[in-house]
Design goal:
Two copies of one chain form a homodimer.
Chain A: E1 2-8, H1 12-23, E2 28-32, H2 38-42, H3 45-61, H4 68-92, E3 96-99, E4 101-106, E5 109-113, E6 119-129, E7 133-135, E8 148-149, E9 163-167, H5 171-182, E10 186-190, H6 202-216, E11 219-221, E12 226-232, E13 235-240, E14 245-248, E15 250-253, E16 257-259, E17 292-294, H7 305-325, E18 333-336, E19 342-346, E20 354-360, H8 365-369, E21 376-382, E22 388-394, H9 398-410, H10 415-419
Parallel strand pairs in A: 1-2, 1-6, 2-3, 6-17, 8-15, 9-10, 9-15, 10-11
Antiparallel strand pairs in A: 4-5, 5-6, 7-16, 12-13, 13-14, 18-19, 19-22, 20-21, 21-22
Chain lengths: ~425, ~425
């Protein structure tokens, strides 16, 4: 079979790329070695968000009757719903779906190992790699359910832990820590480096960490690089590089993810990778091999669905229209969906050419009325042009506010113009429009 | 004393106008005959939002211990906080504040009747009318606390009603009806016309009304024009124009508001009014009298704070920079802050030159996970240009989503461009960016 474009991977990035291509009239195929929806749907994003939603409910209603069976059922039902919707959309758009493991040795040579073990060859003009990422485990630190778990195994626990050792202070570690803590679990979070969420503005992360302790009683141990996590009888024991030991009833591994490049069967030097092992791409999501694009987690951080979707649209527009007319990559929001969320967008590092505006939630009518004044928004602008370069936010509706700033950034609306549009009153988004 | 500009009214519109003028270097005064913050702060907007917030909490937590005293204290504390903040901001910007009743007979002749009864004359180049609106009562239908109340008297009740007759199905009536119903009160809503919220898209209002009944058990009686509301012993009785009678333990009057033009002491024909009695203005908020502008509720519907703020900025930019350079009036969001909110923005009426896109919440991952799939977004676009003309939304975060569309409309971002910016995942705002 000969296609215009073959997308490898059935997660959100692959789905977006295949759909955009097919809707533009390209003869499109998708190869996926797992259920449609990919790891985001079946192992990471969707399960974590169902856990978080359940935890928020428990936090608000205060009731202790947490039902793990119901939660597992909900996670499965959501996965099935998403996979089914993806299949309907892809098939309606005319995308051919192959179930099997794609193997690639060059742009021209793509084979699919079917579940039966036989291989078929497919021909194509373009390839989009969307194979995603997988959690990082080591022999000394790997899941051992039911005591040592990881995102995709959270539902395999038999009951809530009494005391949980969370290994990792990135987005996944912080989100699951907040979910378990909201359900009444004592949580010790072991973070390798000197701060949580290293990709987010340090001032906001500091406020966030104070809130994590004040509200959820999460104890954060910094500069604690866990080197082993083991079950010893009824206990889970973590050892750190500096010789400290921590014990809990359960352990949770959220020590990062790495790009899945197991599809590559060609010469290693042909497909350029980043130092972290992700597929290297340019501004149009082109890899080092002409005709091969890559989108989503396989291209490295930020590993978010919206970033993957953005890349998918950029890649497809580039292969259709070329560099002149293609969409450009623009910043997307990285969000942490804790009960009070925190996130960032674009470039938020200090610089002489930029200035910052800081808006505390305290000044907002909506926050005052809701008795929900913890939080702040920090926006970075170019001193010369007034254009928004990036933003960080912590507090209620912080992610929606960042979405609003994203729209302004993508449309090149300068900060002073954005501020002049009076937003609905009283809302959290008025942080932007207050005089 | 001689000023560049005198603002009459100390509510949110007057505050915004005075602040913008003073910050632009104009010698500015404000005249207010009530505490700073105006009726919005002391009688309508702020009290209603505190009631709604309390009601949402009761709805979520299910606890029955509703504390009216605490609510009254919170309303008062918010009013004081807002008034104090306004005073600090205005005084820091150099605005002179006069407490008294302004009387105006021409652009050149403005006097202030002080609380002592004496009058002083003020000279000015420009006047901004921001005198707001007041509830409409009639001799047959006026507040009689504690049994018959109105927004500013809601806190005067001695206990929650057992059965409340709500007169009026506009924003205020619907919001308070939802608040009382959420607290367990049986509510009968009497609406004059054939539908609730006549300014919002009929398809969404229909879905909204079904939800009001299914979730809050609010009974809506349409085409029921209440002509009298009276206390008879322990009962409140409403009579309608068509001869129906309804009884409850309490009544609530939310039968609309009218512009407050009591400041006008000149010839009636000099200051042009609309058929509804509001001050007539053009696109730059100029009244029929040169040098006199009007902003906010005194100019008629929509009577919202954000609309008043927009008008204040337009008026001040016009008197500073003239027609060529002034800000233009743009649509703002009209919001109803029920537990599931509903609102609208811009022009949403059907037309041959326009097309609509309808997005159900059901299709959203966030809504699915939150088990919160009731709602829809409806966006109206120009067939020729693809520009967004208006939108209506009903459901969780509907008002924030409309805020986002407002930004796009103000920046002339066409719908197809707006859709191409992948928003954070999973959020409600993704209703916009889903393929």
């Amino acid at each position: 079979m000969k296609y215009d474009i073959i997308v490898i991977g059935g997660g959100p990035g692959g789905h977006e790329a295949a759909l955009a291509a097919a809707q533009s009239g390209l003869k499109t195929a998708m190869v996926s070695d797992m259920a449609l929806g990919g790891r985001a749907t079946w192992g990471s994003l969707v399960p974590s968000k169902v856990w978080l939603e359940e935890a928020h409910k428990v936090l608000l209603t205060g009731h202790e009757n947490f039902d793990l069976g119901r939660l597992r059922g909900k996670i499965k039902a959501q996965g099935q719903r998403i996979a089914q919707n993806m299949r309907i959309r892809l098939e309606s758009a005319g995308v051919a779906i192959y179930e099997g493991k794609a193997e690639l040795a060059s742009a021209e040579c793509l084979s699919v190992v079917l579940p039966t073990g036989t291989s078929i060859e497919l021909e194509t003009r373009f390839v989009v790699l969307a194979t995603g990422s997988e959690p990082i485990f080591t022999p000394e630190m790997k899941p051992m359910p039911p005591r040592i778990i990881a995102p995709r195994l959270a539902g395999a626990m038999e009951a809530l832990p009494s005391r949980l050792l969370m290994v990792g202070g990135g987005v996944t570690g912080v989100e699951y820590a907040s979910a378990f803590a909201a359900m009444g679990v004592e949580v010790i979070l072991l973070q390798r480096g000197p701060s949580l969420l290293p990709r987010i503005d340090a001032e906001l992360v500091e406020a966030f960490e104070r809130w994590l302790f004040a509200t959820l009683r999460i104890k954060v141990v910094k500069n604690a690089a866990t080197v082993s996590l083991k079950v010893e009888g009824e206990t889970v024991v973590a050892h750190t590089a500096s010789g400290q030991m921590y014990t809990g009833s359960h352990g949770f591994i959220a020590a990062g993810r790495r790009a899945d490049t197991t599809f590559w069967k060609g010469e290693p030097h042909l497909l350029a990778l980043t130092p972290e092992g992700a597929v290297k791409i340019n501004d149009f999501c082109q890899t080092s091999i002409p005709g091969i694009y890559a989108v989503g987690d396989v291209t490295g951080a930020p590993m978010t669905v919206n970033h993957a979707q953005m890349q998918a649209r950029v890649a497809v527009s580039h292969l259709l229209y070329g560099t002149e007319k293609a969409l450009r990559r623009k910043p997307t929001v990285e969000a942490v969906y804790t009960p009070l969320p925190i996130g960032q967008l674009g470039d938020t590092t200090a610089s002489d050419e930029a200035y910052f505006v800081v808006k505390p939630y305290e000044a907002l009518l909506k926050a005052q009325i809701a008795e929900d004044i913890t939080g702040m928004l920090k926006v970075k602008m170019d001193k010369q042009t007034g254009q928004i370069l990036g933003a960080s936010a912590f507090g209620s509706q912080a992610i929606e506010i960042l979405g609003l700033i994203q729209i302004a950034m993508h449309a090149n609306i300068p900060w002073e113009a954005l501020r002049a549009y009076p937003l609905p009153h009283p809302t959290y988004s008025e942080l932007l429009s207050q005089l």
